[in-house]
Design a protein that fits this description.
Blueprint: E1 7-16, E2 21-23, E3 29-30, E4 39-42, E5 50-62, E6 68-75, E7 78-87, E8 102-110, E9 119-128, E10 133-135, E11 145-153
Antiparallel strand pairs: 1-11, 2-10, 3-9, 4-9, 5-8, 5-10, 5-11, 6-7, 6-9
C-alpha cells in the first residue's frame, strides 16, 4: 500500500524542437514545438489523487513594446489555471524590440481531479495588448530537449 504523497504514475513528454509557435492572437493558442502541442493526458487510478504538472518552454520571446505573454493550463479543453499573465513585458521605446529569449518553467497542482477518467492538460499562450510572441524560437538549438510531465500523487 502506498503512503499519501507517493507518486502513483507519471506521464512524460520529451521532444526536440523542429518548429516554433509565433502568434499575435489575444486568444489562447496551443504551444507547439513542431513535434506537437504541449498536451498530455493522464488517467488517475484514484479520484481523490492530486495531479502535479511541470512544464518547460524554451526560446520564449515577446516582440512588441508595452505588451507581454500570458500562459495558461487548459484542463479538458477548458481554461483552468493561469501560470503567468505578464511574461516578457518591457517598455524600451517604439518599434519591434525583442524582450530577449527566456526559458519559461512552471508547475501546477490539480487538487480536484474528482474522477478516474482520462484528464487532458495542455499549455497555451496568448498576447496581451497587441503584442507578438514566439515560443521554441529558432535562436535555440534544434537539439534542445523540451519537457512536460504529469504526476499522479496519492492522497
Amino acid at each position: 500500500k502506498l503512503a499519501a504523497g507517493s507518486i502513483i504514475q507519471t506521464v512524460h513528454m520529451v521532444t526536440t524542437r523542429s518548429g516554433s509557435t509565433s502568434s499575435t492572437a489575444t486568444s489562447y493558442v496551443h504551444c507547439n514545438n513542431g513535434a506537437g502541442n504541449y498536451s498530455l493526458a493522464i488517467t488517475p487510478k484514484y479520484s481523490n489523487s492530486y495531479i502535479m504538472g511541470i512544464v518547460s518552454l524554451p526560446g520564449v520571446a515577446q516582440k512588441k513594446n508595452n505588451a507581454s505573454i500570458a500562459f495558461t493550463v487548459f484542463k479538458n479543453n477548458s481554461e483552468w489555471q493561469m501560470l503567468d499573465s505578464h511574461l516578457g513585458y518591457h517598455n524600451q521605446g517604439t518599434g519591434n524590440i525583442h524582450s530577449g529569449h527566456q526559458h519559461f518553467s512552471s508547475q501546477f497542482i490539480d487538487t480536484n481531479v474528482g474522477s478516474t477518467n482520462a484528464t487532458t492538460y495542455d499549455v497555451r499562450a496568448r498576447c496581451t495588448s497587441g503584442g507578438e510572441f514566439r515560443i521554441f524560437d529558432n535562436h535555440i538549438s534544434a537539439s534542445y530537449r523540451t519537457h512536460f510531465t504529469l504526476m499522479e500523487i496519492k492522497q
